[in-house]
Amino acid sequence: MSDAVPKLLFCCPYLGLTPDVWMWRQAIGFRHFDVRVLTGGYYNRDVFGTGDIPVEVVEGFCKMPENSSEKFGAVVRGLWGRNTQAAFGAECRAIEAVVKRFQPDVILTQFAFTGLRVLPVARKYRIPLAIYIHGWDLSALIRGLFYRRSLKASLPKIAGFVVVGRHHQRWLEERGVGSDRIRYIPCGAPVGEYPVKDYNASREDEALRFITLSRLVEMKGVEYSIRAFAQVVDLGVKVHLDVVGEGPLRVTLEQLAEGLGLGDRVRFHGALPPERVKKMLVESDILLQHSIIASNGSSEGFGVSLAEASSCGLPVVCSDSPGLIDQVVDGETGFLVRQRDVAAMAERMTRLIRDPELRKGLGLAGRRRIEAHYNTPDQIAKLEVFLLELHRSNQAF
Questions:
Q1: With contact defined as beta carbons under 8 Å apart, do 86 and 55 qualify?
Q2: 283, 334, 39, 321: which is closest to 164 by C-alpha?
């Protein structure tokens, strides 16, 4: 075998968006591969630079069909190969051109739908393909008939699968994917980059600070966090809630907070850069994350913001969403409540308000759990081992 450094083509629908900072962390975190990124869009390059890692932007890469005629055309074209999600035309030619120039030894795609897009090119050039499943690709999207059929038909053709949740692993195994082809590797958080909250520091005011950190979409359940916060406020305690993140529900959530009479107790900050988020986390006391299974089927894959808060030593109050129950040890690193159970969430929040030692104990235990199980550099090292195994086995499936 050659001593040359193996080549990895890292495929993602987009790069550089703040809510998905984990994708950028992975792209720049490999140590045993020569990496090239293929993406449909590269944003905020000044914040999310890739150094000497080339980024190739292919216009239209992973773009979803926008109208019925485009959807019908994709179905017709994909019927022969039983993959209606495959790239075609100019998009396919552009992917193939990158592959021919770079000649990767293995391909990793972020999300299953990206893998389906790239699969025909990977098979044509007999390159092992691994797909990283994160949540949306096995929740909301799986409700689509043609996507679901394409994914199921393609499972035997994909060399390896990486999942961020045990529920994803079970889904694959129930459909015949052997455990030797699956690795549970949550993206985690780079715990060493997050300062630990100083529990001995004096405060300028007596108000405890809650924080939510997520996209403002139904699946993140910010509505239930605000409603629980309102119940806590009714107890007469001094508390404040920072809502960090942007999304289509922002106006609705602002109106909810206003309607509940929360006034300046709740502040909406929009999306913030990573360094600002770190500062806000260590200035906060408790993270709230009430993720739910949304009406369109979307569910949590892995709570990156939860991992970031735990890295700072914050206790967390979360729902028992499938993507969060792997992370939180109830009563040890935080509290879990049933989805949409506002009263239970308010009760756990109140318990933490009244017990400073409990806040500290849960928060520091959470930090230790991230260090032991979800530290991003360690997770990337595990991912590299798996990808190297696929490369050395030379199985393109």
A1: no
A2: 321
Three-state SS at 31: coil
Q: What confidence tens digit (pLDDT) does each residue in 103-161 have? A: 999 999 999 999 999 999 999 999 999 999 998 898 888 898 889 999 999 999 999 99
Beta bridge partners of 210: 241, 286
- Report the alpha-carbon distance of residue 73 to residue 65 in Å, rounded: 9
Say if residues 194 and 376 touch (Cβ distance below 8 Å). no
Instruction: Return all residues near 200 (Cβ < 8 A) that are at least 6 apart.
Output: none
Amino acid identity, residue 314? L
Using alpha carbons, select from 249, 234, 336 the residue that is nearest to residue 288: 336
Please give the span between the terminal C-alpha atoms of the chain, in angstroms, as a whole number.
Answer: 21
The residues near 60 (Cβ < 8 Å, ≥ 6 apart) are 40, 90, 91, 94
Rounded CA-CA distance 365/368 in Å is 5
DSSP letter (8 states) at residue 245: B
The mean pLDDT of 49-66, rounded to a whole number, is: 86
At 153, list the tokens.
């038909």
Total length of the chain: 397
